[in-house]
Amino acid sequence: QGERVNGWYAVLSGLVLLESESQGQRRSAFIGMPDGEWFGEGSALKNEPRRYNVVALRDTWLLCLPQERFQHLYATSLGFNQYLAQHLNMRLGQAMTLIETGRMRSPDYRVALHLSRLFWHGQRKLALSQEELGHLVGLSRQTVNRVLQSLEQRRLVSLAFGRVSILDDESLTAFLTNPGAE
Questions:
Q1: b/e map of 148-176 (b: 16 or more CB within 10 Å)?
Q2: Do the beta carbons of residue 80 and residue 74 sit within 8 Å?
Q3: Residues in CB range of 50: below 8 A, 6 or more apart
Q4: pLDDT digits over 134-158, tens only?
Q5: What distance in Å separates the CA atoms of residue 121 and residue 57, rounded to the nearest whole number?
Q6: Nearest-5° Cα angle at 157, 156 to 162
Q7: DSSP string across 66-102
């Protein structure tokens, strides 16, 4: 947070958490970035110091599209700008969903949402520990464990050490659409 931006980053492998830190050292997690996700486009576009911390939750390899190359593509490439607009639209949808979820939804809903395709586009077997998921969702590991057990009883997920597998995307989506229904 506060460092000069070097470019636009992608997670090649691993998992990073984007978070802010207040003056009183209280942290607020924004979003997790799994393999294949790009982040930092806002800072790269505005060419301003990074406004949040990027925290690796496990061993992580990043790729950096250097700032000069990013700015050149932004100024000259229609294809790059179309991809960037789609990416920003996806990120805006995630942000709006997170705002609503943080204000109005139960822990069960928050965990289910963070397992959905909104955040894990192509992956359905997530190498994700309960502690990591807790960091992403902003809940304790114990609460995440309770919610995952409930989702497993509903046959939406299966659990193994350090792994959550999504068993039924349609039912997970239905749960998110109507979380009170059984």
A1: beebeebebbeeeeeebebeeeeebeebb
A2: yes
A3: 1, 2, 3, 4, 5, 40, 43
A4: 887 878 889 999 999 999 998 989 8
A5: 19
A6: 165
A7: EHHHHHHHHHH-HHHHHHHHHHHHHHHHHHHHHHHHH
Give me the half-sphere count of Cα atoms (radius 13 Å) on the Cβ side of residue 10: 9
* Alpha-carbon gap, residue 131 to 134, rounded angstroms: 5
Instruction: Categorise residue 27: left if φ over 0, alpha if ψ from -120 to 50, beta otherwise.
Output: beta
Entry pTM: 0.62
**SS3 at position 38:** strand
Residue 98 backbone dihedrals phi, psi, to 5 degrees: -65, -40
Identify the CA nearest to 118 among candidates 61, 166, 178, 181: 166
Amino acid letter, residue 71: Q
The separation between CA 145 and the C-alpha centre of its own chain, rounded to angstroms, equals 19
Query: CA-based Rg of the chain, rounded to a whole angstrom?
Result: 17
